[in-house]
Task: structure prediction
Amino acid sequence: MPKQVDFLVVGSGIAGLTFATKAAKYGKVSVLTKKRKADSSTNYAQGGIAAVFGKEDAPEYHIADTIKAGEGLCHNDAVATMVREGPALVKELHSMGCRFSMNSNGNFDLGREGGHSKRRIVHAKDFTGQEIERVLLEETKKVGVIISENEIALDLLIQNGDCLGIYYLDADTRQIDVIYANATVLATGGVGQVYQHTTNPPIATGDGIAMAYRAGAMIANMEFVQFHPTAVYNIKIDGRSFLISEAVRGEGGVLKTKDGIAFMEKYAPAGNLAPRDVVARACLSEMIATNAKYVLLDVSHLQADFIKNRFPTIYETCLSWGIDITREPIPVVPAAHYLCGGIFVNEWAESSIPRLFALGECSCTGVHGANRLASNSLLEALVFASRASERVKKINDIHPTEKLHIRKSAKTGPNLMFQIKEIMDENVGLIRNEKTLLTAKATIDKFQACFEDGIHIINAESRNTSVIAQIIIESALERKESRGLHYMTDFPKKNSKYCSDTIKHIDVKHD
Ligand SMILES: Cc1cc2nc3c(=O)[nH]c(=O)nc-3n(C[C@H](O)[C@H](O)[C@H](O)COP(=O)(O)OP(=O)(O)OC[C@H]3O[C@@H](n4cnc5c(N)ncnc54)[C@H](O)[C@@H]3O)c2cc1C
Result:
């Protein structure tokens, strides 16, 4: 790993890799990733990437759908930027070799998902993310970007208010080192692992957001955690619940109680294709009403060949657990899936700390507002990563006043992951209230005290999830209303007083 690069990227999902491949034109890029290259949420994305290609579609419709889902908190300019710049970048992925599903006319086979008024989901069957990750990793090789695996970013290196790089741990040698960069780009993904039941892989521990928060960056809208309504009940693969993509409902899948009664029509006019928060809360209500641990998702009325061809991963994976989805319904539950908030950035992905950029799920560009529309996250990552790569091309060189100062306070921290997850699931889930939030806060505050100042080389993720839990709880406590993904039983209505972003940050004195 070089000691200084032009552009340092933390994370090798769609956001980090898109930036890296594009920024390589303008300087030397290094990507650091904490496990293997493809260990990312990107690799598991099934449904697809939303973009306007349909004959009956137009950017205005996609913009309107996104803003409607965002319940008054979307940054309209950012939404318009994403929608208008997205299609060209999706085409670019296709021309790089991404094998998107095509129809007989040679156009993208556009899928449909909840909250979208038109068919606009470009997909590669049900393994879209894996295909995008594959193509981007190939592209990084072509343009000479170095990706270092098993390197865990621990903290940002700040001098005179600027971000000059990071402290990181080499997980193989257990050495901590520093890397300097003219621009540091956090693309560390989501926070699902703060919860017990999540569709996110183990890497999703909110590291980038926690690092940025500790350094004094502005963090926004952390109360808006999206719970996907349909993760397979009681089965986990490698620490994550297996997702049944929304596209399954888009193609006709129906949610039913455990006794086989379809229920979505009574909750929303759009029925099974209502926005995710509505569907997830409906599932939870039905589970409570029928005293069941799950609801059912049924596609057995669709043609078996269509199911096998359109959803091969879902079909094969369920079959390996003894569920033949062409004949029987799938038991499903809501699970933590996506974070709408994150490191607050402008339309060029610049954070509130000079020289620090944030991209993808760890960022908050304002496009999702209080609720993300399905398949807009891959699109957001693609668009703002591309914009950031244009922004850094003129960034000037850093001149650190003091070089290679490695902090001595590295030590082992406690592993509190299990306890944090339990508290978050019980008190800060799909439905909250002040009492449950305050209960969670009291315990998380105590945990936070265990992680005193200093870098913990072991259990850095536990330290980070504790910070993330704290920010989610504090943000949720501030928003005394229900809006989008944030549902408080003691404040069940939307309140115009809260029609703005929730911003959290701490004043930090940097030495
Ligand atoms: C099961 C599933 C299905 C989904 N389906 C869709 C879909 O169909 N359409 C859609 O738009 N969105 C979907 N999403 C959401 C979407 O996949 C993610 O929001 C998006 O892939 C995030 O990309 P990213 O590059 O920001 O982060 P990720 O792809 O999660 O990548 C994060 C990277 O950061 C690295 N990292 C993290 N912390 C550190 C650290 N401390 N040091 C070094 N490296 C670190 C990780 O190892 C990883 O390489 C889905 C998500 C899941 C989990």
